[in-house]
């Protein structure tokens, strides 16, 4: 499918989706979010794809929801059209692993999109923030909820209330990102992580994604029970037999997603 606001490239089991509205620092317009949701759903269906990377440009992962698109909207319009709900739900329903590769600005909806991914690798130039307060609104795609779970109440409250941006080093220190890499190597590092994930059993990577995400939704006892049961169920797969046989035979496992 031809897209106007994103570039989709599938190679070696990895789908790289590049947000591509350079004139607006990849601001998340309705069209971009619709196309992104569509491309992710296509990747979910495409048997060749085993891991997805979402990235932007060197200057901006995404500078937020498109302010010009929202400027003239009133409450009844955004409420009735349920602004962002459809796309956010579609993105959150993707079951294959998604890595955000963030360089430059990840602000407002951009920071929130990165947090919707399964983990974030960022460049040393990355800047995260929830500056919606400066526009007279709040975050609306997870900036008060996911950010609080990732970095704790104090930092999340400060960022949401003051609009302060967080640099890469601080983002790594407080657990918002998994790793900081030099800007020039960002995509290479993200793809290399995606390729590692692609070598595993897709059954297992999809199950693990679901299990870790449950940690944000369930009380600990329920989460541990869920984890134990899924762990048990993975013993019913051919890939468990293959993985353990390969270990014993000192060779690489050949997973078949069964
Ligand atoms: N929406 C629409 N257009 C945007 C945009 C956005 N979020 N961010 C940047 N742009 C546009 C600018 O209007 C500008 O376009 P023109 O050349 O046509 O004027 C172009 O991108 C380049 O931007 P700047 O000239 O501002 O670039 P800069 O380097 O001087 O500043 C910046 C960069 C600090 C990121 C600044 O652009 C900025 O503050 N952007 C807005 C950030 C923001 O408030 N994000 C939150 C949006 S609301 C939201 O996301 C709600 C939600 O939770 C869902």
List keywords for this structure.
258 residues, alpha/beta, 6-stranded mixed sheet, 4-stranded mixed sheet, 12 helices, 16% strand, binds acetoacetyl-coenzyme A
Question: In summary, what is this structure?
Answer:
The protein is α/β, with parallel strands linked by helices and 258 residues long. The protein contains 12 helices and 10 strands.
Structural write-up:
This protein has 258 residues and is of the alpha/beta class. Helices cover 45% and strands 16% of the residues. The chain is built from twelve helices and ten strands. It has helices spanning 30-45, 67-70, 75-81, 85-92, 109-116, 146-151, 153-162, 168-173, 186-198, 202-214, 220-233, 238-248; strands at 6-11, 14-19, 51-55, 60-62, 98-102, 105-107, 119-123, 127-129, 166-167, 179-181. The longest helix is centred in the first third of the chain and has 16 residues, at 30-45. The model has no long low-confidence stretch (mean pLDDT 98). The structure holds acetoacetyl-coenzyme A (CAA). Acetoacetyl-coenzyme A binds at residues 24-25, 27, 63-68, 84, 105, 107-109, 112, 131-132, 135, 139-141, 143.
Q: Which small-molecule species are bound to the chains here?
A: acetoacetyl-coenzyme A
Strand order of the largest sheet: 1-2-3-5-7-10
Morphology: globular
Could you give the distance between the termini?
A: 29 Å
Q: What is the typical, i.e. mean, pLDDT?
A: 98
The percent range for strand residues is: 15-25%
Poorly predicted runs are none
Q: Compute the gyration radius: what is it?
A: 19 Å
In DSSP terms (H or I, runs of 4 or more residues), the helix count works out at 12
Structural class: alpha/beta
How many individual β-strands? 10
Give the fraction of residues assigned to helices.
Answer: 40-55%
Element pattern in H and E = EEHEEHHHEEHEEHHEHEHHHH
Sheet of most strands: 6 strands, mixed
């Amino acid at each position: 499918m031809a897209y106007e606001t994103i570039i989709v490239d599938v190679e070696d089991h990895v789908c790289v989706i590049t947000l591509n509205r350079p004139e607006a620092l990849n601001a998340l317009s309705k069209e971009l979010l619709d196309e992104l949701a569509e491309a992710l759903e296509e990747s979910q269906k495409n048997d060749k794809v085993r891991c997805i990377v979402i990235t932007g440009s060197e200057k901006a992962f995404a500078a937020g929801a498109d302010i010009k698109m929202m400027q003239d909207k009133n409450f009844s319009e955004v409420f009735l059209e349920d602004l962002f709900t459809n796309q956010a739900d579609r993105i959150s329903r993707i079951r294959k692993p998604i890595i955000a590769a963030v360089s430059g600005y990840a602000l407002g909806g951009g920071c929130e999109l990165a947090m919707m991914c399964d983990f974030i690798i960022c460049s040393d130039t990355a800047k995260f923030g929830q500056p919606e307060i400066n526009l007279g609104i709040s975050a609306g795609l997870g900036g008060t909820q996911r950010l609080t779970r990732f970095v704790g109440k104090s930092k999340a409250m400060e960022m949401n209330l003051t609009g302060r941006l967080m640099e890469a080093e601080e983002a790594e220190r407080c657990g918002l990102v998994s790793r900081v890499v030099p800007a020039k190597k960002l995509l290479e590092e993200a793809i290399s992580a995606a390729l590692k994930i692609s070598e595993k059993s897709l059954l297992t990577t999809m199950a693990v994604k679901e299990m870790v995400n449950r940690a944000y939704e369930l009380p600990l006892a329920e989460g541990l029970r869920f984890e134990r049961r899924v762990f048990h169920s993975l013993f019913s797969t051919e890939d468990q037999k293959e993985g353990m046989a390969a270990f014993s035979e000192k060779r690489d496992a050949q997973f078949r997603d069964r």
